[in-house]
């Protein structure tokens, strides 16, 4: 049975109300365009996994249901339809494969607790979802001295709509590092809300690659709530055709915090005249003891560099590809996990580099 989107959203934990047209315009969100579409609620799937992941530890989900998993006893797992809870007690590298079916509506939530001194490496892969509407909410708590290295790869079908919310709480001396690749989908919104306490650190990085009429939004709220906390937000965008990217970053430094460091940066590469970027870096500062900066740049491929490469016998198409690769390579170097990086390079392929 199929249902109109407003009925499904009213039952969702992520939407207290459907945004008005005024709210959508301010947020550059086209949610209203999908309200007349129909989606199906997804029953529990029983299909076998054709190609099991090759990694040591992994979880495979289809339409918000855990089909199969392979984890050690040091990870306590609890799952129900559309909910997954992980409690990590030892260092571990986990791969999450999230697969979605055609025209499905999926409202999925994951809760993660990382115990003291534990280092969790987490890789998300979003696949499929032709004409689907996907809501994914992650609530993550890092206990003192815990570390989380997280990679998210959005490689959904071209007509998928996906809204992913990440809420991260960092206790004292904890560390959070994230890399997000937003590559496919009709509309993708990746949102972070991060609270930092004493001497905690967050590095949040994103790469947005859009084409045709895609719309990708990366938004990030970072709240410095304790002394000596550090944050770094960096986003790069490569925008083609008539697509649109939005980068909305807000950093709050609360009153009486000391020795805080915060940076924001957004860099866009426009490859066509009809491509658009909306970059909104924003700092809210209520303390005098800090170091903070933000910046945003927008540019296009250097025609002189293209001409130079062509004069050396390189085709114009190859020259453009080399310059695009140079633009994104430094952000890819920020990925520490070699396994994660290999997956990302395979996902990008030659067409995006």
Task: Briefly summarize what is shown.
This protein has one domain (2-352). The chain has five helices and 21 strands. The protein has helices spanning 5-10, 21-27, 303-311, 316-332, 338-352, and strands at 2-4, 38-41, 58-62, 65-70, 75-80, 83-88, 92-100, 104-114, 119-128, 133-142, 147-156, 161-170, 175-182, 187-196, 201-210, 215-224, 230-239, 244-253, 260-270, 276-285, 290-299.
Short descriptors:
single chain, 353 residues, alpha/beta, 11-stranded mixed β-sheet, 10-stranded mixed β-sheet, 5 helices
Write structural notes for this entry:
The relative contact order is 0.09. The protein has one domain (2-352). The strands form two sheets. Strands 1, 2, 5, 6, 8, 10, 12, 14, 16, 18 and 20 form an eleven-stranded mixed β-sheet that branches. It has a ten-stranded mixed β-sheet with strand order 4-3-7-9-11-13-15-17-19-21, with helices on one face. Helix 3 packs across helix 4 (316-332). With 353 residues, the chain is α/β, with parallel strands linked by helices. The protein is built from five helices and 21 strands. The protein starts with a strand and ends with a helix.
